[in-house]
Amino acid sequence: MFASIGVAHCCETKHSGEPCRSQPENMKQKPTGLSQRYVAALREHLKQGPRASLQPALGLGRRAVALGLETLDLARIHEQAVATLELSSGENGRIKQAEIFFTEAITPIVETHRAARQSKIDLDRLTETLSRRTAELAATNLQLQRGIVRRKSVEAALKKSGVRYGKLLKDSLQLQEGLRELTHKVLVAQEDERKKISCELQDEIAQTLLGINVRLLSLKQEARSNTKGLKDEIASAQRLVADSARSVRRAAREFKKA
Question: Most buried among 64, 107, 120, 168, by the most CB within 10 A?
Answer without folding.
Answer: 64
